[in-house]
Amino acid sequence: MNYAILDVETTGxxxxxxxxxxxxxxRFDGEKITDTFISxxxxxxxxxxxxxxxxxxxxxxxxxxxxxxxxxxxxxxxxDEATIVAHNVNFDYRVIRTEFSHLGFDFVRPTLDTxxxxxxxIPGIPSYSLGKLCSSLGIPLSDRHRAHGDARATxxxxxxxLDKDSQKNIIQTSIKxxxxxxxxxxxxxxxxxxxxxxxxxxxxxKEGKIIYIDNDTNISNKAxxxxxxxxxxxxLLQLKTETISYEITGNDIISLVKAQNxxxxxxxxxxxxxxxxxFIYGIFKENSxxxxxxxxxxxxxxxxxxxxxxxxxKAQNFINQNNKKDYLFSKNLLKKINPExxxxxxxxxxxxxxxxxxxxxxxxxxxxxxxxYGYYSLHSQIKNIEKVKKIMIPAHGNHYxxxxxRNKLFVNKGLNKIIY
Length: 420
Hints:
five-stranded antiparallel β-sheet, GIY-YIG endonuclease, Nucleotidyltransferase, domain 5, alpha+beta
């Protein structure tokens, strides 16, 4: 298998109007680099001041550099019969395809994204930005924000990912390559502009009708997995889908609530496959004593769980950590988390991360029951119930969503509680 591991630096500016100022490509056969192409590029347009400060590339440096059309043939050659690999590949691939489209050439290659692969194969890293990820993994990274430096680090990162993918499942399913050549260009077109952000996405048929709704913390990655899978159901989705739209939510709980409620409203032809719950063990409070117990979750006891975890160790660590902080932990936790006690709190707003840095999201709960969600500006005041209900989007939850909310509120500290 041949890979073209690359990075581009651009002028910055409006979406789809960026120009390439530097490009680096390392052709990699899975074990060693077999070819290299590195060049500054004259973008024939201004370079933003921010980009100049970030990369150190100035207009003077690119003034005598070759223009993209002079490099295009070499780029086609070094990526021929190879899978393009990049850190946030959607960006690099889109910019390169745009440059080729200006030349009247349809540049199509399968792609792999090292961000998505890293999140699957190396979970639990605080940040998946190239710099911080390489630092966490001990991968040397020199000449940061220069194409050759970032691309070389991506080679090392990808080599590590190949080693970790012992069954080769992730590599195979991540490649945007379909055995039906007539569909290949269509699928790439559908996927190339989807963001790697949290939200809800919609597949539309040629009449514009929604035929599939889903959500994920990485819209691009999830849509790619769906449309490049195998089987009759996938084949039908590939044939019927003409456009994909999406809405960023900035919040994983809201994306799930929004998707589930809109599926009920729109009744799309295809429904998402039910994902297995990540919760395996629950924390329970037995009436006979003041201590908490940990049991495996099952159909009969899951509704009584106060909190849920992916492992016994995580549940035990949560209890131990809180016991150290507060000797009245048991009583205090019961008051905070017990659904019966929460029902006595008539109106509750849980605020969290919004879609942008200038806003917050919120979940609105009445007597322990989720009633809706919404967003508000950091500069606005939502101190009265009437205003909340005006901007709220009505929605309903379920037991699984309730567990997610409680975990985010009491374990991950990702929500702030306001009682009205």
